[in-house]
Amino acid sequence: MTEKGSVSGGIKDLLRIEGLTVLLLSLFAYSEFGSGWGLFALCFLLPDLSLLGYIVGARIGAVLYNTAHSYVGALLCVAAGVYLSQPLAVSSGIIWIAHIGFDRSLGYGLKYENGFRFTHLGTIGRPKS
């Protein structure tokens, strides 16, 4: 049984494959338009700093995590970089998109306010005993 508001079965599998596809296409885009693999390695996990919001509480943690793990900001970063001819912004946005795709391929979805474990892709981790 899944948590209310999360997906399961074939839909969950499809969303994870979609995340993997986004990751792979981002890697290809970065190989063409990126600013070096050192920058990629340095910045790949930066969106996870949003997890620090969980120190304050589940609600703030979820808001910060979801903001950092939504494609909206990442796509705006790429678009602004293209429009303003700023290659570093394009690279940053592609890295950000790759990170989100990676997380989604592993089953880490957007968070609900009732705790880190509760995502739109289902519950993650082991239940507390």
Walkthrough of the structure:
The protein is mainly α and 129 residues long. The protein has one domain (23-122). It contains 5 helices and 3 strands; from the N terminus they run αααααβββ. It has helices at 9-33, 37-43, 58-68, 71-83, 87-105, and strands at 111-112, 115-119, 122-123. Strands 1-2-3 form a 3-stranded antiparallel beta sheet, covered by helices on one side. It is globular. InterPro entries: DUF4260. Keywords: Membrane, Transmembrane, Transmembrane helix. This is DUF4260 domain-containing protein. The chain crosses the membrane at residues 37-56, 63-84.
The total number of structural domains is 1
- Quickly give the structural class: mainly alpha
**Quaternary status:** single chain
The helicity comes to 55-70%
Number of helices: 5
Low-confidence stretches are none
How large a portion of the residues is in β-strands, by DSSP E? 5-15%
Overall pLDDT metric? 93
Radius of gyration: 15 Å
Measured distance between first and last alpha carbons: 18 Å
Name the shape in a single word. Answer: globular
* Strand runs, count: 3
Largest sheet: 3 strands, antiparallel
Taken in chain order, the helices and strands follow as HHHHHEEE
How are the strands ordered across the major sheet?
Answer: 1-2-3
